[in-house]
Amino acid sequence: MYVGIDVGTSLVKAAAFDRDGRQLAVETRPVALEMRGGVVEQDMHAVYGAVLAVLEAVTARVPEPVELAGLTGQGDGVWLVDAAGRPVRPALSWMDGRAGALVDGWLADGTFEALFRRTGAALFPGCPGPLLAWLDRHEPASLDAAAAAVCCKDMVFQRLTGAGRAVTDVSDASMPFLDPRTRSYDEEALALLGLAHRRRLLPEVADPVATGRALGAGLPAGTPLASGPYDLPACALGAGVRAPGDGLLIVGTCLASLVAADRPALAGEPAGLSISTDRAGHWLRAMPAMVGTAALDWVLATTGTRHRDLDDLLTATPPGAHGVRVLPYFAPSGERAPFVAPGLRAELLGVCLESTPADLVRATCEGIGYAARHCLEAAGLTGPLAVCGGGTRSPAWTRLLADVLGRPLRVVEGEVGARGAVLAAAERHGVPLDAAAWTRPARTVEPDPDRAAYHAEGYAEHLELLAAARERARR
Fold this sequence. Notes:
Layout: E1 2-7, E2 11-17, E3 23-30, E4 34-36, E5 39-42, H1 44-61, E6 68-73, E7 79-81, E8 91-92, H2 100-109, H3 111-119, H4 128-138, H5 140-145, E9 148-150, H6 152-161, E10 167-169, H7 170-173, E11 178-179, E12 184-185, H8 187-192, E13 204-206, E14 210-213, E15 224-227, H9 231-238, E16 247-251, E17 255-261, E18 273-276, E19 283-289, H10 293-303, H11 310-315, E20 325-327, E21 347-349, H12 357-379, E22 385-388, H13 395-405, E23 409-411, H14 416-429, H15 435-438, E24 443-445, H16 449-474
Parallel strand pairs: 1-6, 6-15, 10-13, 16-22, 22-23
Antiparallel strand pairs: 1-2, 2-3, 4-5, 5-8, 7-9, 11-12, 14-15, 16-17, 17-19, 18-19, 20-21, 23-24
Helix pairs in contact: 9-14, 10-12, 12-13, 12-16, 13-16
């Protein structure tokens, strides 16, 4: 048995696979986010407890010895830990918006662009740079007390293995301090954000991922374990996205668009990031929009409808949702890809007394699709496109996405991030697995030509509405 652990933002998962990549069992546990006035935090004790719970449950269900485990999880945010990997304070989530004013200032004074030209990383309020700078100004005692500022999976890895020091991988280190050309920290990037005096908090970078053996909590003692890449590149690895130009769309809490590249992107409009991967000379041009299924969750809850009704709701109203349009920028920290706008907020347009819940739901799904198309174009998609994530469990929404994007979708099912984490661990620990078999898509969904043509016009309208909304957000 091979176990993949995916420590998500709202759900912690552990999946068991056999040698041929067949998914044998999955266990999940929810984890809470505390949101208040743009502040979004998570209890690290609860997150780690959920990891142990899913591991114990999945290994109990599949009575085979665990040969190997791989770990991935949500990226960005700041998880301050002591020397043993235990929390100094609650984790600051990647969804946190408290550093928005800092990012606005860096956008205005040129720091934002200067950093992007060095590292290929476009700052957003919930990434480590702005959050560390905010803590340095408003909560310096927390930084003084911490041994390291890590990402989610790094905390879990240190606790599972008892590692004597904090360590991260090249993918999580890519935002925002890693030079993608040298795969090491850029000291000038730290200085640009006024954080040179906090250099000691950056964890060691294991290139490409950290390896160790489990102590015995959750996993049998001695189990080989690897940590990384984080969830976005882990999904790309689990979906078989390797050749330059090939892409992946993850329809999850975060709407993430990834395109494989043979060089980092340091030119053009500063947005997204170039993620260093498990292979030198290979990057993922990432455009991780802030809100994906989270936007739909909000609309379903607000309209009093349910997730299980999504397919019926999408077929109850035609393309265009009777004129209702949704700009799906619901995150309290604004948007980060394929542009950065901390002040941008969602807009619902064309709503009247005749509008139905189905109209609002369909318009939201179409708006998310348009946002994905914008991100994929900016990331340079030229090859086949794979899709995964919770949103693809809806056949109707998957067909809608194919129409909105105007291209075939290779649907990869199951726990794709966990699958990628196992493949990364196998490579590092020298365990031979058939990557082609592990990453084979379940099916391909073709776009309808007429609906695709209709949505091409809808996409042009979306860009016009977005331009006006961005202008209002700047005032």
